[in-house]
């Protein structure tokens, strides 16, 4: 069975009520490939999750941008997996490089978060990726393998996990990994899953690319055999997000 193309839109810490309504209206009006071809998930800030969930077309889904590592309680400012489940939010993004870098989330902490979210019935977009220094030092594969290992050690079922490879040096910088560079890392990740988890997980787990994806480069990236979709940042707030969703047709026709 082929891996269904996946396009996630990470809105990060952006938007107000009016802007969010406009983005949702443009998504609702868009002509995009069917759910058989592409799975679309958008991730607004927590405060807009109910608004987006209520008003977004039924073939698109929503994700939170983070959740806490255990059951709720005395954790001021955090949102638990249970709360997301209560709101019928099906997806959560975990381990984004901005949280790893700015909030010092370790790979082990991310692994614990992924395991807890899955245990509560959430689906997870788990983010991994190397910095520019690590790429220039030639340690990209070691870095992303270690980040993946920290997740693999905590979970046994990968059915509800999408792995998002996001080279940190390409996020929001306008620099983008070439299709060949991205494909190379995706191949290595799949090899790692085969060797360290099993062949079925390696073949079925969707590995998506993130890092300055836009309407201009998405088709070339989508044509790579091991790139199963995208996690889109800034461009997910713009009309070109529709073009990125449509790049799923490139994969279908490849």
TrEMBL record:
Location in the cell: Cytoplasm
PROSITE patterns linked: TIM_1, TIM_2
Pathway of action: Carbohydrate degradation; glycolysis; D-glyceraldehyde 3-phosphate from glycerone phosphate: step 1/1; Carbohydrate biosynthesis; gluconeogenesis
EC number of this enzyme: 5.3.1.1
Main location (coarse class): cytoplasm
Span of the signal peptide: none
GO cellular component terms, semicolon-separated: cytosol
Keyword Cell membrane: no
Protein family per UniProt: Belongs to the triosephosphate isomerase family.
UniProt name for this protein: triose-phosphate isomerase
Origin species: Salvia splendens (Scarlet sage)
């Amino acid at each position: 069975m082929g891996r269904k193309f996946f396009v996630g839109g990470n809105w990060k810490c952006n938007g107000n009520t009016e802007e969010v309504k406009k983005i949702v209206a443009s998504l609702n009006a868009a002509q995009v490939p069917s759910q058989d071809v592409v799975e679309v998930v958008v991730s607004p800030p927590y405060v807009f999750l109910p608004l987006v969930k209520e008003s977004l077309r039924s073939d698109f889904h929503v994700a939170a941008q983070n959740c806490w590592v255990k059951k709720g309680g005395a954790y001021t400012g955090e949102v638990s997996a249970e709360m997301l489940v209560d709101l019928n939010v099906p997806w959560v993004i975990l381990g984004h490089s901005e949280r790893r870098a700015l909030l010092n989330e370790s790979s082990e902490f991310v692994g614990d978060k992924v395991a807890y979210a899955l245990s509560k019935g959430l689906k997870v977009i788990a983010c991994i990726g190397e910095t520019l220094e690590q790429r220039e030092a030639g340690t990209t594969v070691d870095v992303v393998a270690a980040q993946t290992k920290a997740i693999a050690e905590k979970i046994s079922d990968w059915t509800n996990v999408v792995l998002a490879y996001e080279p940190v040096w390409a996020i929001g910088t306008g620099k983008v990994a070439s299709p060949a560079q991205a494909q190379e890392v995706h191949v290595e990740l799949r090899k790692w899953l085969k060797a360290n988890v099993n062949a079925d997980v390696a073949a079925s787990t969707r590995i998506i690319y993130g890092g300055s994806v836009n309407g201009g480069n998405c088709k070339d990236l989508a044509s790579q055999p091991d790139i199963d979709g995208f996690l889109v940042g800034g461009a997910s707030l713009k009309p070109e997000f529709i073009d990125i969703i449509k790049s799923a047709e490139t994969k279908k026709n490849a």
